[in-house]
Amino acid sequence: MSRLESKQRWVLGIGGILLTLLLAAVFTFGSLDVPFHPKSWREVMALYAVSSFITAALLVFLLILGRTTLRLWVERRREQLGARFKTKMVVGAMALSLLPIVFMFIVSYSLINRSLLLWFPKPLEIASGETQKLLNDLGRTQLPRLRGLALQVQSERQRSGDDFLQHAFAKGADAVWILDQAGNVIRGGAVCENQREDRRGVICVESNLPGKFLRSLLSGIEVWQAGDRNFFGARVQDFENGEPTGFTVATYRTSPGVLTRLAAIESQTQEYYQAKQDLRALKRQMLLILLFFTVLLLSAVMWVALFLAKQVTVPIQALAEGTREVSSGNFDYQVPEQAQDELGVLVRSFNTMTTQLRDSRAQIDEFTRSLQQAVQELERRRQLMETVLESIPTGVLSLDGSGTVLRMNTSVLRMFGIHEPGLQSLEVLLGADGARTVQHLMRRSLRMGVVSREMETVVAGRVLHLAVTVSSLGPRRANTGYVLVLDDLSELLRSQKTEAWQEVARRIAHEIKNPLTPIHLSAQRLSRFLEKRDASQQGASPDPELEKLVQECSRLIEREVSTLASLVNEFSQFVRFPAAKLTSANANMIVQEAVEVFSGRLDRVTLKSHLTENLPMIRADAGLIRSVVVNLIDNAAEALESSSFREIAVSTKSLADAEAVQICVADTGHGISPEDKDKLFLPHFSTKDRGTGLGLAIAARIIAEHGGSIHVEDNFPVGARFVIELPVAELTPTTVGGHSGSSTAL
Ligand code: ADP
Question: What are phi and psi of 722, to 5 degrees?
């Protein structure tokens, strides 16, 4: 049994005892003959004690009632949990009990009133008054007769002894006494008990029978006692020589218990009138007692109502506290069991529920932890995947079922030369034709899973050779999208073409070189033969026309052969390209040296250089790179010939992300068409009459040997821009290049 339970039992026990005592008090007081007319100090004390107790108890209970009501009101104002229920219970109980209690109060009060009235009934009051009057009338009628008798007896007082008594009794008296002035009996006597009514003869007397004055009645009649007999009498004053000497008392005999009865009547009457006098006080007292019991009952009702309400509200409060704790996440909270009945079941169920919740939360926590681990693992894999996707040069796009681009890696942006991040549609990336082709591939991939094909598209003014692979992410009905993989084949194709051209150049050089020397020698021999013959014949030529023709032809053959030889030499140089000797070099320095080559040689052309300071060193063969830059400036100068505004800008900058240095040669010349951009770096391509088309091909090879890249873009607003990117040698910035950042106009 819990502490609380035992405490409750104690309270219940004490409450029960108090209630029993109070009920006992109710019955006791109800049947009490309360001493309202206290006759001794003890009764006064008792009356005061009872009155004080009742008043004090009444006050105490009134205070308890008031305090409980006030507490309830405060609890209600504060909207304390359970206050409304308590109020309802108390108000309900009070309302239920108030009617019978008030009814009982009124009935009891009226009953008491009636009972009190019954105590003083009218006939009794009349009888009492009449008795009193009767006594008085009796006295008033008897007294003159007795006085007269006493006067008659007084006249006989001179007689002595029995004679006096004989005469006195003969006059009708039953007993006579002579008293002194102080009222003491001097002499006298009474007739015998057995004396006949007829007193004409000798009368039997009991002389010297001492009489005893008992009391005088209200009417003035005196009551005397002699032996065991009682007498009513009256006295008259005796005089001797005008002086009062004493009294003469004449009496009639009366019944022996008359005095007792008289006393009883008198005392009862007096008590009756006294009680009647105290009736108001009695009524007040009764009202007080009734009020006390009413308040007591109301307090008891309120107490019981509160006790019952607490039986409900305390567990409900505990449950509310529990709910609050649980809602704030404390699943370890257990509601202390304070209820026995259905609420106890509720509390136990609540505790079971919180225990289950705690277990479930532990399971959920465990599950969440493993889920978090799984999510972290997934995130790690996703990041790895993303890093892989972002670091590969291949462009990867994911598309939904309708062909809308959902994701793309940066290689796609790089490939298509897009600088703003964000998603682009297939039409924007590949153009209308390209997008149509991809959509066709997407449809095919639904049947075949994965499909590939090569395609060309013009991007930022250059032709892009792409290998497009489309994979569908499911069969036609359950397809959730596609993955589009784009490989830029331009570089590969270019190097393949370069290799093919190298082979062609090597064979042509080989095939052409062999017959060139005999042709050259034959032409020289022909020329020399004609010269010798001219000298020997001294101007007499048999056929001067033929001679002139042969001489012209042999000179032409010699000149063209030497042109052909130089072409073959360039072809050979292209084929037998010297291996680059890579060392640490300063890009700014290389550019400056290249620019200096053109110092004072360019006609009406502005050559500017914008060199970024603190460029990192590059790993390069400075001579080869310089020849490339010289070639680019030379080409730019040639492209400017027909332009009105002629400017060549050479610049350098560091590409921190790519760990590379960029060299850029831009001109304001006629620019390059998209188709030509693709062919530009091939050996055979030239738009010039006597151009070999090898310059850019060699430049591309040199840059490739350095592990770098070269490409051409449109210059803004006109012209072409050749961009070379070379990997850095080390990460520390170089201090070489004092001219860096300068802008030179040549
Ligand atoms: P070549 O100079 O012998 O023609 P190149 O390989 O140096 O051979 O150049 C190939 C072609 O590229 C040129 O014929 C020219 O049409 C074009 N070209 C090169 N540089 C430029 C330029 N800066 N502006 C316009 N076209 C250029």
Answer: -100, 125
Sign of CA dihedral 575, 579, 582, 587: negative
Tokens of 271: 């008590």
526-583: per-residue pLDDT in tens? 888 888 877 776 656 667 788 888 888 888 888 888 878 877 777 776 666 666 788 9
Around ligand 1, the residues with Cβ closer than 6 Å are: 635-636, 639, 667, 669-670, 672, 680, 685-688, 691-697, 720
Threshold 0.90, pTM exceeds: no
The tens digit of pLDDT for each residue in 81-102 reads 778 888 888 888 888 888 888 8
| Ligand 1 pocket: which of 680, 710, 711 to mutate (most atoms within 8 A of CB) | 680
Q: Which DSSP letter does residue 615 get?
A: P
**DSSP letters spanning 571-614:** HHHHHTPPPP--EEE-HHHHHHHHHHHTTTTSSS-EEEEEE-SS
- Which amino acid type is present at position 638? E
Beta carbons of 654 and 615 less than 8 angstroms apart: yes
Compute the distance between CA of residue 391 and CA of residue 384 in angstroms, rounded to an integer.
10
CA-closest candidate to residue 101, choices 32, 12, 21, 26: 26
Over the stretch 706-731, which tens digit does the pLDDT of each residue have?
A: 889 999 999 988 999 999 999 998 64
Nearest to 567 by CA among 696, 701, 680, 691: 691
